[in-house]
Amino acid sequence: MSSSRRVAIITGAAEGIGRGIALRLAKDGLDLGLFDLPRSQQKLEQLAEEIRKEFGVRVVNVYGDVSKEEDVKRLVDTVVQELGSLWAMIANAGISVNRVLHETSAEDLDKVINVNFKGTFFSYKYAAIQLIKQGKGGRIVGASSIAGKKGMAGQTVYSGTKFAIRGMTQSAAIDYGKYGITVNSYAPGVIDTPLMGYLDEYHTSKSGQPKGSWTKSVGLRW
């Protein structure tokens, strides 16, 4: 199936920043491939239906795990098959496990690296393969963070992965510019998302402070 509309993939699209990106790109008239974990199916289906009704664009939902290479390849293949092409990959999916370095387990280390760094890597990789094949340029965008520009207390591994995404993005931009493909990352500050609620709960349980106090202390703007 082909369309004159540009097509964008957003990973981690069911809620938070990914959901906001999906709504904005739909408003701008792009067809969308939305990707999230199977447990987010209800939220993603509701989002897709909202987008179809309000903006009249086509939406394809795909479920899987960005940390698994075969899932990301399947994501790109499915979206291209259903919507005809690819123009932009928004590698938004990410997680955080907030611990100081010496309290971070190997399991948590692997979990954050697998989702944040490997998941972004795989998203860049299969988007680049498809965009180069099409020969019409395109956009690749990844989620860094304010913690990818400056280290933050209790975020050793998270911050490390977000710094890594910046380095990968800059290198990929050099490699793919000759194909008309731009590669950029965005670095949000503290945003009111479910992830931020999880982090607030963790920090306030440790400090004994009221819920919401941690997010306010790091500059959340309601």
UniProtKB/TrEMBL annotation:
GO terms for biological process: fatty acid biosynthetic process. Transmembrane segments: none annotated. GO terms for molecular function: oxidoreductase activity, acting on the CH-OH group of donors, NAD or NADP as acceptor; quinone binding. The keyword Transmembrane does not apply. InterPro entries: NAD(P)-bd_dom_sf (IPR036291), Sc_DH/Rdtase_CS (IPR020904), SDR_fam (IPR002347). It comes from the Eukaryota. Keywords: NADP. It holds the Pfam family adh_short. Belongs to the short-chain dehydrogenases/reductases (SDR) family. This is Uncharacterized protein. It comes from Pycnoporus cinnabarinus.
